Amino acid sequence: MTAPVTPSRGASTRRQWLKAAGAAAAGAGALAATVPARAAAIKTSARIVIAGSGLGGLAVASRLSELLDGATITLVDAKREHHYQPGFTLVATGVWPVDKVRDSNAGYLPDGVQWVQEMVAGFDPAGNVVVTAGGRRIAYDYLVVATGLHLDYAQIAGMDVAAIGTNGLASVYASPQAAAVTWGALDAFRAKGGHAVMTLPAGPLKCAGAPLKMTFMVADRLKQAGTLSASKIDFHTGLPTDTVFGVKVVNDAVLGRWKALGVHTHYLSKLVAVDIGARRATFATPEGERSTVDYDFLHVVPPMRAPDVVKQSDLAWKDGPFAPGGWLEVDKATLQHRRYPNVFGIGDINGTPRGKTAATVKKSAPVVAGNLAALIAGRPMTETFDGYTSCPLIVREGSAMLIEFDYEGRLTPSLPMIEPLQESYLAWLMKVRMLKPAYVAVLKGHV
Amino acid sequence: MYEIWLMANIVWEMALGVWPLVAAAALLWVGLLVLAWRRRAAAAGPAWTPALVAGALIAAVAFVAVPALTRSSLSELSYWVDWLSLAAIAAAAGAAAFAFAWPLVRLWHSFRSPHPTSVSQGA
C-alpha cells in the first residue's frame, strides 16, 4: 500500500529542488571566481605577423585577438595539419592510435586572424618584412617568431626518414606517421627481443624527456612480452658522464631506475652514421673515435637546430651557446628579441636555457601576448617567464612521474602535495587523458 | 586559482570532445527529472535509498575498472594521491549514476502505483 502524496511533501520537494539549484549557482559562482580577469581590449591598427602555426603561434594569435581591438593579425605557415606532438611517444609505444595526434589548423584559427598558407622563406627584421616562399612580402609592425625547430637527421650519415619503421629503425620525432611505424618496429622487436640501441644527442632538444620515455617503454614492452631477459638495451648519449637529463635530481632518478632495469649507458657517444640495411649504427666520441654496433632496434633522436630561415637571418644569436644552432635571440624573461624590440619569440625556436615543450608554451604564451600588447599600448612590459617546463615522464605503461622545473632546474610542482619523483598513476592519467584537452585550451588562448 | 581554472578548461574540452553524448545524456536526465516531477504524486516508494545504492555500486565498479580502462592497473596505485584521485573519479561516476537512478526509481514507483489517478495531482 503506497502512501498518498501530500502537499507538504510536494512543497518539501520543491524546496529541495530550489536548494539544489542554489547550490549549483553557488558552484558556478565559485568557478567564475577562478576565471582570469581580462582588461578591456587595446584599440590599435598595428600589423602583427606570426610566423608559424604550431601551438605557440596559434596560442599567441588567440590571445592577441582577445587583447587587441583593430589589429591586423596575420599567421604565416603552409602547414594545414596540426600535430599534437606530446602524444607522439604514446603513438610510438602503442598506447594511442595515430589519429589522436592529428588535427586541423583551420579549426583553431581565431576569428579575424588572416592565414597566409605559405612557408616563411625569409625575415628582414631591419625592414620589418617577412618574405614567403611564394615571394610575397608581408610588412609588419610587430613580429612573433614561432617557426619551431629543424630536425637535423642529415647530420646522421645514411639516415633516411622514409625508412623509419623498416629494419628495426625507429624515431619518434619525425611525424605522426613516423611515430606510428616506430610502434610497428617496436612491436615486431619485442616479440623476439634482441639488442635495442637508444640514442640522445647533445644540444637543445624539444621534449628532452622523449628519448628517456622511449627507453623506459622499450624495456616495459620487452618485459610484457617476456623477452626482456633475452634482450640488451644500450643508451648512447652525446652528453657527459652520468648525464641523460638536464635536471640533476631527475637525471639521478632516471639512472637509478635504468640500473634496475638493466639499461646500459654510454656517454659522450654520438650517433653519427647508420647502415639501415645492415642494422649497424656508428657512434663517435668528441675526440673523433668511432665505434660500430649491430642492433635489432635503433631509436634515432636527431640533433636539433633552428630552421634555416631563422638561422640565416639577423634574428639568430650571433654568439654564445645558442649561436651554433641559430636559435632566436630573445631575452629569457620577457621573450622579446634582444636587438629588435618589435620582435618576440615563442616555443621551440627560442634560444633560452631550457624548455622546448608544450608546457613551456602554455606558460609563455601569456607572457609574449601580454608584453606585446603592453608594448603596443606604450606601457611597460610586466610579464616575465621563469622557464617553466613540464615532462610527464612515462616509466612504464600505467605509471609516470610528473616533473616540472624552471630555467634554473628547480623543481616547481603545480600541486605542491605531489612528489615529482614519485611514480604515479595520476601522472600517467594526466598524460593519457588530461594533457591533450589542456593543450587544446592553450591553443584557444583560454589557459 | 590557476590550477582550478585549468582543470575546469580540461573538463570543458573533454566534454566538447564528446558533446553529442553529453548533450544526449543531459537531455535524457532533464527529461527523466521532468517526468519524475510530473508523476511525483504517484511515486510512493523510497527513491533515495535505491538511488544511493545504485550510485555506490557504480562508484565501486568505477574504482576497480577505471585504471584498466586507462591502460593502467590497481597495482600501479602506490601513492596516496593516486588513491585520492581514483576515489574522486569513482565518486563522480557514482554521483552521475545516482543522478540518473533517482528519477528512474521515482518513475518506477509511480508506474507501479495502484493509484494512477493521483498522477494528475502534480499537474
User: Helix fraction of chain A?
Assistant: 25-40%
Q: Structural class of the secondary elements of chain B?
A: mainly alpha
Q: What overall geometry of chain B do the principal axes of the alpha carbons give?
A: globular
Q: What is the number of E strands of chain A?
A: 24
Runs of chain B with pLDDT <50, length 5+?
A: 117-123
Q: Largest sheet of chain A at a glance?
A: 5 strands, parallel
Q: Note the total helix count of chain A.
A: 9
The proportion of strand residues of chain B reads under 5%
Mean pLDDT of chain B: 90
Strand order of the largest sheet of chain A: 7-4-2-11-22
Distance between the termini of chain B: 45 Å
Structural class of chain A: alpha/beta
**Any idea what the radius of gyration of chain A is?**
25 Å
Largest sheet of chain B: none
Taken from the alpha-carbon principal axes, the silhouette of chain A is globular
Number of extended strands of chain B? 0
Tags for this entry?
heterodimer; A: 447 residues; alpha/beta; five-stranded parallel β-sheet; 24 strands; 22% strand; globular; B: 123 residues; mainly alpha; 74% helix; disordered C terminus
How would you explain this protein's 3D organization?
The complex is a heterodimer of chains A (about 450) and B (about 120). Chain A has about 450 residues and is an alpha/beta fold. In chain A, about 30% of the residues lie in helices and about 20% in strands. Chain A contains nine helices and 24 strands. Chain A has a five-stranded parallel sheet with strand order 7-4-2-11-22, with helices on one face. The longest helix of chain A is centred in the N-terminal third of the chain and has 26 residues, at about 5-30. Chain B has helices at about 1-15, 20-40, 50-70, 80-110. The N and C termini of chain B lie far apart (about 45 Å). Residues about 115-123 of chain B have low confidence and may be disordered. Chains A and B meet through helix 1 and helix 9 of A and helix 1 and helix 4 of B.
